[in-house]
Model the fold of this input.
Amino acid sequence: MPKRENIKKVLVIGSGPIIIGQAAEFDYSGAQACKSLREEGIEVVLVNSNPATIMTDREIADHVYIEPITLEFLKKIIIKEKPDGILASLGGQTGLNMAVELSEDGILAELGIELLGTSLESIKLAEDRDLFKQTMNTINEKVPKSAIVTNMSDALEFAANNKFPIIIRPAYTLGGTGGGIAQNIDEFEYICGKGLKLSMINQVLLEQSVAGWKEIEYEVIRDGADNCIIVCNMENFDPVGVHTGDSIVVAPSQTLSDIEYQMLRSASIKIIRALDIKGGCNIQFALNPYSFEYVVIEVNPRVSRSSALASKATGYPIARVAAKIAIGLNLDEIKNSVTQNTYACFEPSLDYIVTKVPRWPFDKFITADRSLGTQMKATGEVMAIGRTFEESLLKAIDSLDIKINYQLGLSLFESMTVEELMEFIQQPHDERIFAICKALQKNVTCEEISNITKIDMFFLKKLEKIVNIAEDIKNAGIAFLDYDLYTRAKKIGFGDSYIANLACVSVDKISNLRHKYPISPVYKIVDTCAGEFEAVTPYYYSTYEEKDDVAVSDNKKVLVIGSGPIRIGQGIEFDYCSVHSIKALKEMGYESIIINNNPETVSTDFDIADKLYFEPLTKECVLDIIEKEKPVGVIVQFGGQTAINLAAPLNNDGVQILGTSVTDIDVAEDRDKFLKLLESLDIPIPPGSTAFSVEQAKVIAENIGYPVLVRPSYVLGGRAMEIVYNDQMLDEYMSRAVDLSSKHPILIDKYIEGKEIEVDGICDGTDVLIPGIMEHIERAGVHSGDSISVYPSRSLSQEIKDTVVDYTIRLSKALNILGLFNIQFVADSDGKVYVIEVNPEPVEQYHI
Done:
């Protein structure tokens, strides 16, 4: 049916701030939805509270409200704008919960405003655990043995009549918030109490655990005419018991027989029809690995985190299609944006394998509990594409930007005995896959590991293959690393740095082998249809085969390096910058190319850059693409610390770094060089120095006096930054921090109590633009990303403001900054202003 003519204006509800379990994937889906609606001539009103997102840019919607996503504020916006409909299913759990609150408030009925897409009744059927269970029973789809409770008394009654472990799932929460797996009555009482409190309707689902079964996901779309398609099916590497956001996920599924695939496909279509969902939804199953028995775990009646992964894995724009379905279009009326020859009712077909690996924050919170369960802990994720599971897995691990030379993680567990390894891998853990590789290296069989972990033998055999090739390289050494072995290593996904580490030689020696043999990657296209139709959107991944799909033009090109996975201190703000960089390049007539590996972001959408390479952000991968495309230069300043850290290695290989030069970036990042610059400019800095050892650190701290502020150089987001008050604390800090930055010194400064001030600006080499001065509410020493800031400043004297402006202009010119920069200051009680640091790239506060 054609687009509904009575829908002229639509309110799109965003997802608010990034939290664990609800990250950039909803910025991506919301931005795509706004674009999709405007393509159809719909006036779009957007409400969101996150300043770091593309969604809250003025060009995304006709009217943008940066306001709290609460019933009170939404009602005011609705009364003012009078939209014809509200689209809430693209704003994560926040948007969905607001749809329920608005409907129950009565304002939608009062003003005649329609909830577009999936109805309130369907949302409740999927989100209310009791209604969901009843619906599944009606269509003969099994759910785990369970009970829905709203008080602790009923919960304890269920526990008394059932065996542990028991899974607790609160209603209307995201990322497993408030839930968990209870192994005993004490854990059960604690988790239940928390879940009841956090549920919007004080309701939790208690389930007998099916931990150990395979966890399978289906991403499904349905339109108003009851047409349904499966966009993608995905299989978790970890069995049931680990939240899917914390699990390695592979698409398409690897271990299902055709009978099992079709069985769950049919069930998915039956479920989305029974729930009457219009748009996208995610369905999670638990499948008994020894029979055809399965149960439905849950359904997300909205675009989810998995939807972003499925979209990027297949090239099928789920959010775009869901938005058009919401205004009346059907799948056979919506063009496939990738092929522009087929329609959205054409199910994607993959001739490659995608692997998603989570990115956890344990490098920031080293004492945190690293075990994994039903409550999500990851802050972000990476995605990699390859022709085999091994290749895509190793590329994904390369993409994590964990700054530890893992050697497949084997060095982490070097000192563990087989017995200790087997005990370690019994419970899910963020480093379990590396411990499994170490166990395989120590000749533990796949069967023994599978019996303990319940991980499918298919995946374990693949890990065994990786470990065996690693052992072959180690045994061969550089002297016997021949063409056959090197080629096998590259095809399985080993980066040159992996191979160099295994062979105990420099990376340059391994890179030379590529020219000696020679061997180089080719690039394949993501086209949604396994090559059956020609694709028009250039979206590529590398592999080691014969045929190359890239058409290289003679246009002037610029390569933008993205920021990789979202983590604490490096979030969506850098994706925002990357997207705007691409837009500006297009406006200036350059062919824009981006490299990134984050499936949650707008920058990896199929239609942002002229070319997208979904690849690890390593020197090797970037140089391969530069060799292929031959751009006039590379922009690193919008990709956060990940991209900045590539600047010097690329520059050393003769790559033109656009914007602030590598030499000047180094002056800003290198403590000694930065001190000399400040001295020449007569700009004060807190007294301090640099140290490579504990002994040096103690001498410096004694000379300047405690408390001192310590941090590694060349890091972003205050990683490993602490205020240290005595020698004992300094000993503890140095034992951890030196490992984090072995190539760079530890910075030790006198901690100055005072008011922290921040400036973001832009410099073209001659003129400096300072939009304003931000004043931190918290005392100095609280990281700017954790501090409440006001803009413009409220209590700074004119003298302090003038000093800040003077220092900013002189510093940015002296550093020859070309582009954005950030400077942080502290003013002591006497009004003296010190420079804390200069970041020659955007940081979190840039968007304010």
